[in-house]
User: Fold candidapepsin from Candida verbasci.
Amino acid sequence: MLFKYLSAAFLAVAQGAIIKRDSPKTLKLDFHVAVNGTANGITKRDSVDYDLQNIQTEYLIELTVGSDYQHFSVALDTGSSDLWIPTPDAVCTNDICLAYGSFDPRTSTSYTDLNTVIKDYYVDGTFAFGDYGKDDVHLPGGNTLNQFQFGSMNNISGNVHGLLGIDFPIFESTSYQSGEIYNNFPMALKAQNIIDQVSYSLYLNQLDAETGSIIFSGIDKAKYTGDLVVLNISTNDVSVKTNDLVLNGQSLNFQDDIILDSGSTNINFWDKNIVDQIYQELNSNSNGLAPCDQPSDKFLTFKFDGLEVDIPYSDLVRPSNQAGKCWVGVGYYGGVKENLVGDFFLRKVYVAYNLESRKIGLANAKYTDEEDIVDFWF
Ligand SMILES: *[C@@H]1O[C@H](CO)[C@@H](O)[C@H](O)[C@H]1NC(C)=O
Ligand SMILES: *[C@@H]1O[C@H](CO)[C@@H](O)[C@H](O)[C@H]1NC(C)=O
Ligand SMILES: CC(=O)N[C@H]1CO[C@H](CO)[C@@H](O)[C@@H]1O
Assistant:
């Protein structure tokens, strides 16, 4: 999750119109799900005040860039807006930064230097600095995204190794620096006629699955149960409003915006009172360490207009390195007054983001290999 409060002045942006399409064009990218513990030492940016060292999940997308087809993997992030990759000689505070490949602008003859600095700051206080450039991104299926703008980073703090940010363009580094925006990944895909619409659907698959997928400008109707409930995006970010949060049948009286952030692992609340009530219910200590043996017939339920998403307590914990103790996937987000829901929530749902109509479709996920990809209808 990008630190988004450097300049609120740029956040008022006009609402896009729905585009009428004749023949739908979609792009599906599969990702590798990396959970800390299965893919050595992966971490990503998450809540500020919560120690997440032991439960980190990333959705790794492999990209191929440049005239010399350089490969690297970046983490898909619906909570930031730039693509960035470390350079081979990047100065990093953690070796993880080069573990998934790098991009060397000097060896690609199709690279164009933009002579512009990129500076991304994240909510946990970490940052990635570098230079913007443009180069060709070779996509699966044979398409090429020509001269796409991204950052080659040479100064990286924290435990990250590259991000594919697909949030609204107002959160691009240029936007904070000069108020200008450029076509980020989903926008460029549309501008170059590879997809029809600036929209995408996320299927994270079940807890122990190793793969998932994102479909740009398409919805896989096989991957959810019931109807996809269409909600308005409720803030400047990819968020929707809840009607309530229910803990083992008890209302927590929670009507608030939640940001559906693939760059977060936990379900993070700014209201510590909500976190405390959940910890208490799961017999957790104040650090979020609870017994692993949690019931599967008691639920934390998110209520929306026309949809309930039940998360069994047993799916709210992941193993720690202390015997019998697990980390609870709920945290206190001490940064600003917003709620970020990551992997622990997103795995339970199928979520379709339409950044043009500013609507989000949500349904309970159905874990299956079947596929029925259609165009967005909202
Ligand atoms: C990286 O950026 C930090 C923060 O601005 C700065 O203190 C540090 O000197 C930079 N490191 C390099 C190698 O440029
Ligand atoms: C959603 O937004 C539309 C305008 O785009 C508005 O007409 C409608 O009332 C909103 N619905 C809700 C539930 O806020
Ligand atoms: C569950 C697990 O293996 N967690 C590991 C995650 O990574 C940190 C440091 O990188 C280890 O200390 C944990 O043991």
In short: The chain is about 5% helix and 40% strand. Residues 27-195 form a domain with the Cathepsin D, subunit A; domain 1 fold (CATH 2.40.70.10). Residues 6-22, 37-54 have pLDDT under 50 and may be disordered.
